[in-house]
Amino acid sequence: MRRRTFLERATATLGGVAAAVGVTGTVSATQNEPRVAERTTSTLLAGTPYETETVTVDAPEDGPTAFVVGGMHGDEPSGYRAATDVASWDIRAGRIVAVPKANRPAIQRNTRKNDNGDFNRQFPPGSEPNTELARALWGLVADTDPDVVLDLHSSKGIYRTHESFVGQVVFPSSVDPAPGHAREAVDTVNGRVVPWYMPYHRYKHGNLVDGDAPLLMHKVTADLGKPGYLIESTKFLLDPRTAAHWTASLAEQLLASHGIERREGGDAR
């Protein structure tokens, strides 16, 4: 969705979803100085135990819109660290709407679940989300009308190496062009970011997300029909800072493939 179209719609709907909006910076350009993206913040579910910051990065040029979420599970630090990084970027065109720490109570406790269970199992496709927090987050996704969605996670092991763990993998939605872009991003990050001496930590292309489970990305696929990616980086022999960097690198490659390019050398203001 184009940036200015969203702004018009969001003005009418923001009050029911978020409060305490504050512009953190506006930059005017000169002839010799490139314009940078503007960064604004708001609060989702303000005044409740689940309140959390949302960040919008608006580039000086119109373009596609991305929704980026981290911290669905509180014990997955590389996901919410990478989402926080993405929310600080300067971009050339389009917009990014980010919720870096979606499940703040679980993050504060360093637990997978909050008091209502597993947050990323509360988004049944075709039905209303199960909890207040899930409904608020889904409402923000729907109002954003994104062209692409990224959901950033961590895992304890490595996909197809450790049983029941899915680290080092990108699960794309079944909506084109997500499968092809996922393969390209995996190949790029494996070649440029993951060290050659860590072959077991090379990312893989996972199964397609087709809308048959009550996860956020499945609901994006089934209900919105939009391309999206669930990224899982491992904790196995990898410190959270490095895992977050690798996750953010994948996010950068995937967003660029959808026309949202990061501008080097500066953050949004």
UniProtKB/TrEMBL annotation:
Region of interest: Disordered: 106-130
Classification lineage: Archaea, Methanobacteriati, Methanobacteriota, Stenosarchaea group, Halobacteria
GO terms for MF: hydrolase activity, acting on ester bonds; metal ion binding
Recorded superkingdom: Archaea
Domain D,L-carboxypeptidase peptidase: 54-161
Protein name: Succinylglutamate desuccinylase / Aspartoacylase family protein
Gene3D superfamilies recorded: Zn peptidases
Pfam families: Peptidase_M99
